[in-house]
Amino acid sequence: MRAVTPAEHLAFIRTQPSASFLQVPAWGPVKSEWQHESLGWFRPGADGEEMVGAALVLYRQLPKVKRYLAYLPEGPVIDWASFTDPDARLGDWLDPLSAYLKKKGAFGIRIGPPVVTRRWSAAQIKEGVSDPAVRRLDDIAPLERTPTGAAIVSQLHELGWQPQAAEGGFAAGQPQYNFHVPLTVDGRAKTEDEVLKSMNQLWRRNIKKAAKAGVEVTRGTRDDLAAFHELYVHTAERDHFTPRPLSYFQKMWDSLTPEEDDRFVLHLARHEGDLVAATISIRVGQHAWYSYGASSTEKRDVRGSNAVQWEMIRSALAAGATVYDMRGITDTLDADDPHVGLIQFKVGTGGEAVEYVGEWDLPINRPIYAAFQLYMKRR
């Protein structure tokens, strides 16, 4: 294992079917409050050494001391599916990583394997929300338990890594529960009609309503980020969350757009000249994400949010993506929980809820790591 250049890192990412956008080299400069470094795993090949894994490592320094939390969000990028083989050892990958990061001054390491452990269908979720005896996804037997997820969890425990549990699936890092819209069936790409048919009647009606009302979705420029941000702040005030500053989205644009043409795309939905919804999508290989969204309170009846979501799904299909990722949800199915509205909106697409392995920590310097954990709890 050794440090690699951003160009080497990106070249490896381009050989993979997909990888998290949080693991592309361009993500490092976006997180300006962290230091960042690209790392690679190598093994002997026919023409010399061969790069077989990559990681974007973010370093968060502790106040006043040169000790760091080394964070690999939704990473590293290695062949996680290979660990269903009983002879494959995760330690062969993570041991050199921890040795390298220890030399760099890391007191602890946090990883987020992009590995799904369980899946629930849209029908199961809909039934769960209507059943008063069901309060969380855990109350429903999953549609699938993945062997890869089970193997990774088992080996991480054996290697001394600690799961970072979070109430409802949300943590200080990345969400453990996400919502996916599969874009393939029986090994082939779905058609737009097939994706539409998998949606519920309300979603299909709203998409048609937006088209009939004359809502137009266009691709925005960097200058349009200001209009997006104004609508995003409005959305934050209405929905009671803390918005990111405009400068954050400008950093995302400046860093991510040079990597690929549709790495970062701003979508704008307008009705009679008024901006009624705006979103940001990101794509790496066969994985497309709905990353940020905003909508106006006025003109909600023209269904700009549904129109812009449908355009992002269509763009993902055209790009050859196999999954449209609507990002985080909580695990609640309690009809009285205010968070249930989020999963109800997403479940209308006909997709599936997925649980990931989650984030795991390896304490290297246990006293400093314990102090860090205490500090984070007090924050």
UniProtKB/TrEMBL annotation:
InterPro entries linked: Acyl_CoA_acyltransferase, FEMABX, PG_Glycine_Bridge_Synth
Signal peptide residues on this chain, from the entry's feature table: none
PANTHER family in the cross-refs: LIPID II:GLYCINE GLYCYLTRANSFERASE (PTHR36174)
Keyword Acyltransferase found: yes
Family the entry assigns: Belongs to the FemABX family.
Gene Ontology terms for molecular function: aminoacyltransferase activity
Domain of life: Bacteria
Keyword Cell wall biogenesis/degradation among record annotations: yes
Protein's name in the database: Aminoacyltransferase
GO biological process, one term: cell wall organization
